[in-house]
Specification:
The complex is a heterodimer of chains A (263) and B (215).
Chain A lengths: L4 H86 L6 H30 L8 H16 L2 E6 L9 H22 L3 E9 L2 E8 L6 H6 L4 H12 L3 E7 L3 E9 L2
Parallel strand pairs in A: 1-2
Antiparallel strand pairs in A: 2-3, 3-5, 4-5
Chain B lengths: L5 H17 L5 H26 L5 H23 L7 H20 L6 H24 L10 H30 L9 H27 L1
The chains are: A alpha+beta (263), B mainly alpha (215).
The structure holds adenosine-5'-diphosphate and magnesium ion (MG).
Adenosine-5'-diphosphate binds next to helix 4 and helix 6 of chain A.
């Protein structure tokens, strides 16, 4: 080696300095990264906060919706039946035995129907504690009720039937999505047949709801800035980390599919 | 006269700071830290006296100190990493390697200075420190690093052993053979000590602050 000792010493000092600076830079990097983590954390908190408020809103909406359906049903179905019974009974002429018997039988049938409807309705109201028995049961009840009260032909493949899986926060949102979709079908579709398929596979719940109604123009309805319900559907699916897809053909019907990580 | 030795001065300062900030701490870890620092100071003091007064070389004292150091620093990492990961066998492996190398070298060198064991130990501790910081980065939970005692304590360890390893390697490779002597070089070890015990002192202060906040 040709270098003089002083040169070597300065090289050593320099090397030592570098070896001290390297970990210092590492520490600096960690501190700055940590700051980013803080920002990220704050963002996350904001998102959960939003999620919770949205959830609260949803749960209130679910309640309101249920009340509305109950009111409608009381008025349209049971109210109708009872007033029909009333008319029938008040038109009875006791002297005409044959006719009276016929009318009384008819009234009995009407009252039987009212009782049946009331029972169905009671089930739906009970269903308000709805999700207590799980999403699957709540949907089952709702669909049954729709079947009987509005005379739809509904098929329901329930992939959650034999599982104990549930997700307290997601179930409510999913139920709300179902309600909005069915609401739309009742309100707009003029359908006779509804297919509902719910499947759970590899932690993904996929839901498809098809009707054979009149369909609509998706682009038009969204550009009309009318589709509050549909927009809400999209928002809700995103809220629980899912994807939603709507397709509709005029005169053919509408198909809505949602995929959500579950539970 | 004693305290003109910078190494001694730094160690005693750190010990006193530890004593006054930690002696009321309920966690065993911090109590052991005080004891360890006291032990360090005593060893350093004896070494100093033997060297200055009796002009004796004191490798045997350092050799006595090394297993204690290895045990304590391993314990530090074990304590802090336990909060971030479940891997605990790692420490037994590292500890086993250090102690094995130490014992072999002790007999091979006929109880001379166990420099290889020190190098091995340093490398292992540096790796632990990297592992600690990697886990800290990965951890989702946000902590205020400015006041996070483990961050500073391990920062001291990282600087001390990383810088120390580099210096010792160069020293062994080059300087010993060439018999270079330069007063500047004698500043390196005190600088490393200063960083180690400085960061530790700060982490003790953070710990005291933490204790006050959560009381
Ligand atoms: N299943 C459906 N069948 C036919 N038309 C539908 C269906 N669902 C939605 N639409 C159409 O899309 C529009 C937007 O729906 P939506 O956003 O739910 O708003 P709203 O139900 O309040 O009218 C509706 O006005 C309707 O014309
Ligand atoms: Mg709607």
């Amino acid at each position: 080696m040709q270098s003089t000792p002083t040169e070597i010493v300065s090289i050593i000092l320099l090397a030592s300095l570098v070896f001290l600076l390297a970990p210092l830079f590492l520490l600096l990097y960690i501190v700055s990264y940590n700051k980013k983590k803080k920002l990220h954390q704050q963002e996350k908190e904001l998102i959960t906060e939003r999620f919770e408020s949205e959830l609260l809103k949803t749960s209130i909406e679910v309640q309101e919706q249920t009340m509305q359906t109950i009111a409608t049903d009381l008025h349209d179905n049971i109210g109708q039946l009872l007033s029909l019974t009333h008319i029938t009974l008040s038109s009875i002429n006791l002297n005409d035995y044959e006719k009276a018997k016929h009318k009384i039988d008819h009234s009995l049938e009407l009252i039987g129907n009212s009782i049946r409807d009331l029972r169905q309705l009671a089930k739906v109201i009970q269903g308000e504690q709805l999700l207590e028995n799980g999403l699957s049961q709540a949907l089952e009840k709702g669909i049954n009720w729709l079947k009987h009260s509005r005379n739809y032909n509904i098929t329901f493949e329930n992939g959650l039937k034999d599982t104990e899986l549930s997700s307290a926060s997601k179930d409510l949102v999913i139920l709300r999505i179902f309600q909005e979709v069915f609401n739309n079908i009742v309100k707009h579709a003029e359908a006779g047949h509804i297919d509902v398929i719910m499947e759970l596979e590899k932690d993904k719940l996929s839901i498809v709801i098809k009707d054979d109604g009149k369909g609509f123009d998706i682009t038009e309805s969204s550009s009309r800035n009318q589709g509050l319900g549909l927009n809400n559907l999209k928002k809700r699916s995103k809220l629980i980390g899912g994807d939603m897809d709507i397709s509709s053909k005029l005169g053919k019907g509408t198909r809505i599919s949602i995929t959500v990580p579950y539970p | 006269m004693f305290f003109f030795n910078p190494g001694l001065f730094i160690e005693f300062t750190c010990f006193f700071i530890a004593f006054f900030t930690l002696f009321r701490d309920r966690q065993v870890f911090w109590k052991i830290t005080i004891v360890y620092l006291l032990f360090t100071c005593i060893i350093e003091l004896i070494t100093f006296i033997l060297l200055k007064v009796y002009h004796q070389r004191t490798f045997w004292l350092y050799n006595l100190y090394i297993p204690v150091e290895a045990t304590f620093i391993t314990y530090v990492f074990h304590t802090f990493l336990r909060r971030l990961t479940r891997i605990n066998h790692l420490f037994w492996l590292g500890y086993g390697i250090i102690i094995t190398v130490y014992i072999i070298e002790l007999f091979k060198r006929n109880f001379g200075y166990t420099s290889t064991a020190v190098s091995v130990m340093s490398v292992i501790f540096v790796l632990y420190a990297f592992y600690f910081y990697a886990l800290l980065l990965k951890n989702d939970e946000y902590v205020v690093l400015k006041y996070y005692p483990p961050f500073w304590m391990i920062a001291g360890i990282l600087l001390f052993y990383f810088g120390g390893t580099a210096f010792n390697l160069i020293y062994d490779l080059v300087l010993v053979k060439m018999e270079v002597r330069n007063p500047l070089l004698s500043y390196i070890n005190p600088t490393l000590s200063f960083l180690l015990y400085g960061f530790w002192s700060y982490s003790f202060i953070c710990r005291a602050r933490q204790r006050k906040l959560y009381r």
